[in-house]
Design goal:
three-stranded antiparallel β-sheet; 40% helix; 5 helices; 199 residues
Length: 199
């Protein structure tokens, strides 16, 4: 699979810009790529449910506890980008007729999960995958297209090229999401309140 520099060069090629050898090259292209690569990567990984980026872990409770509202707190992993699932809880509507307090079973605050669930806490989350060899090929193309769009103004000063780069990014992202979704089996979610009220 593509390295970081190869992905950057794919983006630069889309703009008709000169390729680089390293992020540390002393030229405008390398400085542009280096300034945004990690930011763009994390934003794209967080934005969608990429199967190659989902991890499962069991967390131990911290020795500290929340000041109020919950009984336990758990430290999120260092590579955490977005929470997908906690234990077997899927967020949905409450069927309570009257509520005078929050019914949330957990919250994410200050890079911790606060909850009343006892340890171990099982979570699925979107992780920061820095190793580009683990990325799906269509995700690589989407990242290259996003980088091209982000760098376009700085490297070309062309509105026409920027519009073209924006469209290229949209198409690459749609293709990547479609490709990632096709290989996943359907996942049934619990019935919502509208369905349950009719049982």
């Amino acid at each position: 699979m593509a390295s970081q520099v190869e992905i950057a060069n794919r983006a630069l090629t889309k703009l008709g810009a000169a390729r680089i050898i390293s992020f540390d090259d002393d030229n405008k292209q390398a400085r542009a790529v280096k300034s945004m690569f990690e930011i763009v990567r994390d934003a794209e990984l967080r934005a969608h449910l990429w199967s190659f980026s989902v991890k499962r872990v069991s967390l131990a409770a911290l020795s500290t506890t929340p000041t109020w509202g919950f009984d336990y707190e758990y430290q999120l992993p260092s590579d955490y980008l977005r929470l997908v699932q906690v234990n077997d809880v899927y967020p949905g509507p409450s069927l309570d007729d009257y509520r005078n307090a929050s019914v949330a079973e957990y919250v994410v605050e200050s890079r911790k999960i606060l909850t009343n669930f006892t340890a171990p806490l099982n979570i699925r989350y979107m992780a920061r995958i820095e190793d580009t060899t683990q990325w799906d090929a269509t995700f690589v193309e989407a990242i290259a297209s996003r980088l091209a769009f982000e760098m376009c103004e700085d490297l070309t000063q062309s509105n026409t090229k920027k519009d073209s780069a924006r469209q290229d990014y949209r198409e690459a992202l749609i293709a990547a999401i479609r490709s990632d979704g096709i290989e996943q089996p359907p996942q049934d979610l619990p019935d919502d309140g509208w369905v349950l009220s009719r049982l």
